[in-house]
Amino acid sequence: MTTSTGTVRMWNHDEGWGVIDSPDTPGGCWIHITTPSVERRAFGLEVGRHVTFMWRKMELERSQDGFSYVATDAWYVGEKPFRRRTSSYGSQGGLRTSLTITFDDETSGGAEAERDEPTPCV
Q1: Which parts of this chain are annotated as the region Disordered (predicted)?
Q2: Each residue of 31-73: pLDDT tens digit?
Q3: Which of 27, 33, 51, 70 could bridge to 16 as Cys pair (CB 3.0-4.6 Å)?
Q4: What's the structural domain count of the chain?
């Protein structure tokens, strides 16, 4: 992959993609909303801002929405790439929780707890 600098030409908020212009990517470089390493990624890239971006050229017979180049990462010039924290609980960053319930038994003098059948989660 190659790293270049360019300018955000457009951003389609409804469809979640945009185009970065650079002399290294003639015709523009397509970028998806999940690609940028910027803190407020959900809002897309700001049109007119200068970015550093990594890109790859599509195979000759393929293109992405008519673009021959696709960005694999991007961040604003002068800023460090924003890297989301990853969890120690797995590669997907999910959490793992558990719950232990201890009932008093009849021999300890405590009140007998009612035990209903488990209700399936829907």
Answers
A1: 103-122
A2: 998 877 777 666 788 999 999 999 999 887 677 878 999 999 9
A3: 33
A4: 1
pTM for the full predicted model: 0.64
Residue 31 CB partners (closer than 8 Å, separation 6+): 17, 18, 19, 20, 45, 53, 70, 71, 74
Amino acid letter for position 16: G
Determine the structural domain holding residue 53 and report its residue range.
Answer: 2-76
CA triplet 35, 36, 40: central angle to 5 degrees?
Answer: 125
Name, in order, each residue with C-beta under 8 angstroms of 100's C-beta and a sequence gap of 6 or more: none
pLDDT tens figures, 3-27: 999 999 999 989 989 999 999 999 9
